[in-house]
Write a sequence for this structure.
């Protein structure tokens, strides 16, 4: 297994984090560059620094001592990130083997009979099932890294690779019709739609309603119509999963992982927040010094953010925009 001195790794990580969070402003002040102009440049060229923490912990009845697992996996992630996106996005693994360092994103390690992975359908969590053979062959860091980059954080990577000018629709209307005598399904779908509507606040306005005038084929338990489409989707099983996929496809969110829309929404919070910062700059490029100070303060906070949802940051950015 790849060995990195814990002290050296800590020094490197701290140095990179400090540079990512403060480097742009240090440069601005040393060179007497306007901070708002620099922020605008960072946003325009896709180099606004973002750090996402992912905690790694054991789940289940079996756990092992892996003294260098986090460091070795971090090396794998850092190496591959160069091929996936620019250097503005950093993924930072957190050792949560003792359960004292949870984070918004997480990976559960579960001892099993074969190497595989899973993604939660309604949270920001991945599962890595590993064998003793993968431990002895030093394959576990690679498996974890692939799970994180190709699945758990994939929507974040996909969204940050898009131009900042590319945005999803401002609103979406959805109509549903349920098969009769299916109160249980209607309750589950209603709860999901209300939850998703709330999650999308700040990104788009999602309106949904029951419309019994829709067509419902005999083998379907639910029909769904996205308002601007002239056809109706028939669903015969896994209603919430199918609705989630329809939303993701229509809004052109990241395609992976397929069954978790919540990962895509969390990634969209970041993209939308940066878009709002850009809008604020364009609206007040050379006016309102107090507003610019608040803008830079918010940008500073975003650069130092590691372990919280950006939904609140988006709310703050929108409030600043509305007051512009």
């Amino acid at each position: 297994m790849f060995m990195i001195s814990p002290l050296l790794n800590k020094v490197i990580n701290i140095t990179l984090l400090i540079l990512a969070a403060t480097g742009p402003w240090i440069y601005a002040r040393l060179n007497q560059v306007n901070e708002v102009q620099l922020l605008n440049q960072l946003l325009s060229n896709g180099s606004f620094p973002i750090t996402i923490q992912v905690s790694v912990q054991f789940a289940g009845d079996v756990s092992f001592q892996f003294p260098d697992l986090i460091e070795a996996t971090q090396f794998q992630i850092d190496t591959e990130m160069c091929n996936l996106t620019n250097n503005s996005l950093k993924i930072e693994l957190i050792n949560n083997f003792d359960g004292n360092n949870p984070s918004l994103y997480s990976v559960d390690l579960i001892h099993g009979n074969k190497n595989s992975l899973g993604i939660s359908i309604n949270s920001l969590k991945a599962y890595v099932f590993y064998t003793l053979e993968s431990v002895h062959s030093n394959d576990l860091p690679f498996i974890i890294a692939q799970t994180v980059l190709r699945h758990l954080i994939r929507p974040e990577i996909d969204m940050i690779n898009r131009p900042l000018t590319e945005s999803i629709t401002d609103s979406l209307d959805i109509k549903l019709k349920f098969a009769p005598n299916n109160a249980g399904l209607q309750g589950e779908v209603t709860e999901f739609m209300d939850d998703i509507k709330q999650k999308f606040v700040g990104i788009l306005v999602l309106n949904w309603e029951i419309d019994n005038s829709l067509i419902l084929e005999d083998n379907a338990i639910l029909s769904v119509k996205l308002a601007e489409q002239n056809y109706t989707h028939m669903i015969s099983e896994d209603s919430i999963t199918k609705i989630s996929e329809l939303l993701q496809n229509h809004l052109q969110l990241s395609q992976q992982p397929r069954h978790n829309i919540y990962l895509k929404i969390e990634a969209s919070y970041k993209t939308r927040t940066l878009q709002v910062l850009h809008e604020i700059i364009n609206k007040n490029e050379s006016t309102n010094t107090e507003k610019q100070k608040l803008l830079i303060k918010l940008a500073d906070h975003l650069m130092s953010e590691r372990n919280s949802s950006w939904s609140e940051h988006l709310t703050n950015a929108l409030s600043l925009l509305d007051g512009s």
Remarks:
- The beta strands are 50-58, 89-95, 105-111, 116-119, 125-130, 171-178, 205-210, 222-226, 233-235.
- The domain at 171-250 is CATH 3.40.30.60 (Glutaredoxin).
- The radius of gyration is 22 Å.
- Residues 133 and 139 are 8 Å apart (CA to CA).
